[in-house]
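REQUEST ID: PR-0412
SUBMITTED BY: lab tech R.K.
PRIORITY: routine
TASK: structure prediction, single protein chain
INPUT:
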Amino acid sequence: MEEKDRPVGELEIPGIPVFKKGKVRNVFDLGDRLLIVATDRISAFDFVLPSLISHKGKVLTQISRFWFDYTSLICPNHMISTEVKDFPAELQPYADILEKRSMLVKKARVLPVECVVRGYISGSAWKEYQETGKVCGIKLPKGLQESSRLEEPIFTPSTKAEVGHDENITFKEMENITGSELAEKIRKISLELYQRASLYAISRGIIIADTKFEFGLDENGELILIDELFTPDSSRFWPLASYQPGKSQPSLDKQFVRDYLISTGWDRKTPPPPALPDEIIEQTSKRYLEIYQLLTGKNDLP
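STATUS: complete
OUTPUT:
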């Protein structure tokens, strides 16, 4: 394996201060801009796992790049470039490790809400629906099955927790956080983004069951999309050909890893999380590469 193809778990750039280190991404401060580098780390149940997934960081960056371009007329975003040749001179010596896994972006004031859109009922929404008949305060029709398609996609915001779990909130609670006008704008744009991406994905044989967005305000106070967009880490992807409501669906996202961890008997609360066997690592990497190729139409390895 060539050095540039080895999985990347940790990354430092001498002389460039770290702005933030997330579960998967390291963000570096370039003054008026940021450099977001997606590593090959993988998280589940709010833990960063001790295993690395080959190609994952590149897949996340290149899929986000694709979607930021595809949706730019609906909402502007923070992406400046994913081409290392466009990066500042001090980053050029690290081109090999930054290639395809890094994105130069505008700085933004991050809004403290996760903006989730659901077109199908699954995961935590299915659990909440079974208990209350609602999701985030939205009453849904009776008789839905697991993985049912909703008549209309719904906007279900949540808190953005730095530590621990995000908590689902009602739209009214979101208005209290962001203000009513901004909340309405975010909801409208989120639903438009989901509708546009869903139609495209269906044409590629993929159902986007749900997804989450992050927004910020740029230096002029304008709303922009930030972070990642319609990736296997932020979305639930199902193959259209095998879709059948009434059960959980095979996934082309990191649900595969969550399912494995559940099968080990780990309580999902007590550290450390178990390492992934080589077979699970390989299968997960294949899933990320498959969704990249299906969505972008490219057959190259990112």
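NOTES: The chain has seven helices and 16 strands.
REVIEWED BY: pending
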